[in-house]
Amino acid sequence: MAHAAPTAPRRHRQTAADTTHLSKAALTRPLLMGLVYGVYAAFIKRQTGPVDAGNVFYGILCGAIFAACMFALARIGPRLKREAHAAAYGVFAGIAFGYLYSLAEESVLKSCALGLAVGAGVGIAAFYRYYTREE
Question: How far apart are CA 41 and CA 82, in angstroms?
């Protein structure tokens, strides 16, 4: 009666055909984070002056670019190895933070150094997360 023994349930492995369907959460998170990033970028760019159409357009543009990059990273990232996946998130976070810091009229060297520090921290944290939750 070995053929009647129960088996362990198999985990569903995501294939390329499964990735064509987008959930609401997959679209909502990057859009909300892009909105926050765009509003913050426009706020910094405003420099305590009046809000004008240029600031609004700048915020929309920054938010749209941020959301598009984050959406692409969320779609492509799981197909990468854990090291490359963590490095991609670290690079993305470092660039995004460094750019926002440079809008505050700080030096390029300081913006690069802080962006590198933030990117390294996010990359290490992402690598730890992917390494401990490996299938």
Answer: 31
Q: What is the CA radius of gyration of the chain?
A: 20
User: CA nearest 127: which of 77, 76, 86, 92?
Assistant: 86
Q: What is the pTM of this model?
A: 0.76
Q: What would the mean pLDDT of 94-101 be, rounded to a whole number?
A: 93
Least confident span in 13-22, 34-43, 104-113: 13-22
Alpha-carbon distance 11 to 30, whole Å?
Answer: 27
Q: Which of 44, 41, 45 is nearest to 60 (CA)?
A: 41
Confidence band for 85, pLDDT divided at 50, 70 and 90: very high
Written as one string, the DSSP assignment of 2-60 is GGG---PPPPPPP-TTGGGS--HHHHHHHHHHHHHHHHHHHHHHHTTS---HHHHHHHH
Integer CA distances (angstroms), 35 to 9, 27, 100, 132, in order: 41, 12, 14, 31
